[in-house]
Amino acid sequence: MNRFLARRFAFSLVTLFVLSLIVFFLGQILPGNVGRTILGPLADQQAVDALNHQLGVDRPLLVQYGAWIWPFLQGDMGQSYIYRSPVAAFVVPALGHSLKLAAVGFLLVVPLGILGGVVAALKVNRPLDRVISLGGLSATVLPEFVSGIVLILIFGIWLRWLPIDAAWPDGAGPLIQLYYLVLPAMTLVLGLFGYIARMARAGMIEALDSDYTRTAVLKGLPWRLVIWRHVLRNALLPTITVIASQTGYLIGGLLVVETLFRYQGIGSLIFNAAKAKDFPMLQACVLIIGITYAVATLLADLLYSFLNPRIQMGDGQ
Amino acid sequence: MVEPALRLDRLSVDYRAGGRNRAVLRDVSFEIARGEAYGLVGESGCGKSTVALTVVRYLPRNGRITGGAVTLDGADVMRLGPQALKDLRAKDVSMVYQDPGKALNPSLKVGRQLVEVFEVVGVPLAEREARALEMLKKVRIADPGSVMQRYPHQLSGGMQQRVAIAMALANDPTMLILDEPTTGLDATVEAEVLDLITDLRRELGTSVLFISHNLAVVAKMCDRVGVLYAGMLVEEGPTREIFGSPRHPYTISLLRCLPRGGQRKDRRRLDTIPGFLPTAGMLMPGCPFAERCALADNLCRTEVPKLRAVCGRLVRCHYSDRAVDLPRNTPADVVMPKPTMGGAPVLRVSNLSKTYGQGSHAIRAVADVSLSLLPGETLGLVGESGSGKTTLARMLLGLVPPDLGGTIELDGNPLAASLDRRRDEEVKAVQIVFQNPDSALNRSHSVSRIIGRALRRLGGFRGADLSSRLNALVAAVRLTPRHLALRPRQLSGGLKQRVAIARSFAGDPRIVVCDEPTSALDVSVQAAILNLLAELQAARAVSYVFISHDLGIVRYLSDRIAVLYLGRIMEMGPSERVFEGPNHPYTEALLSAVPNLDGTRNTRIRLSGEIPSAANPPSGCPFQSRCPRKIGAICEISEPPLTEAEPGHVIRCHIPAADLERLQREYKAGARNVEAGQEIETAVIDASHQY
Amino acid sequence: MTGFAAAAAPSRRQEVFTALSRSGAFLTGLTIVLFWVVCALFGRDLVPYDPLGEDILNALGQPSAEHWFGTDQIGRDIFSRVIVGSRDILTVAPLATILATVVGTVLGLLTGYFRGIIDDIASRLIEATMAIPGVIVSLLAIVALGTSETTVIIVIGLSFGPGIARTVRSAVLSERELDYVAAAKLRHENSAHIMFVEILPNILPPILVESTVRLGYAIFAVATLSFIGFGLQPPSPDWGLSISNNYSMISGGYWWTVLFDALAIATLVVGINLTADALQEALDG
Question: How far is CA B663 from CA B577, B602, B667, in A?
Answer without folding.
Answer: 16, 17, 6
